[in-house]
Please model this.
Amino acid sequence: MSATSLMRWRRAAALGVALALVGAAVGGCARPPTVDPVKAEILRQIREAYLFDADVGGLELLSVPEIVARLDPDTRVVEMRRMSLDFIRGLEPESSVMAARELGGGRGYLRLAFVGRRTLEDVRKALGGFAGPRCALTIDLRDNAGGSFEQGLRFAEMFLPAGAPLAVYEGREGRALLYATGTSPPRREALTILINERTSSSAELFAGILRWHRRAELVGSPTAGKRTVQRAVRLDEGHLLFLTTGRFMAPDGSPFGDGGLIPDRQAAEDAHDVSTPCAETERERR
Model:
């Protein structure tokens, strides 16, 4: 090998070593992109269960707060607390009926704190405790954030004949019209339902169904306007995802009011005795 060739080989070898070192350095510093398990689970739930159309590919480029902000207002990530977890597991307080009393003249009053797994049973028990028949009943749903949509529907059935349309449920698979399936005769009391801006979810659905059938008068202030259904998904030790997977509409497919339910008449926030006197109710029925 000539001196010139040897020199060229040495230069090429030196260059190769240098490139190898650079490659090793770059490769050694490179790290595979980290995967956020919370973000990955949220995106998976959106793909599989979210009610509305969403550009999941575009959402992959965003942070978790940015993803949630792009979804509907009822979808949210919340910090887990013991009480909220107990409610999700069905360990709600002992009774959803927090007050039951007679108002005189054949009128009764019930106040419900929430709509839970035993609400229908609680209401029947409370009504059975009244003396004698009632011509009018006030159901106070103020500050009632709802809970079980199934119980809300069954509660409405108490005051409607079998076969009456209750609501349209819309999910990812389409829409279905739900009907009353109760076997007992419907209750006959004239109904007044007290509502406010914190009446929400299945409590709002119950009120909306009975007003749609002209079976109840709504009194108070406009409701929250939430009649969507959320799936609760545990993301990690400290957070839950509430993802909208369905919603309820009136039997004709229209919303139960734009935004919240608008009351038929207003009443003071501390009002309780707002039902129509029974004599007037009987004259209207005749």
About this structure: The mean pLDDT is 84. Strands lie at 76-79, 97-104, 107-112, 136-140, 165-171, 174-179, 190-195, 216-220, 228-234, 239-249.
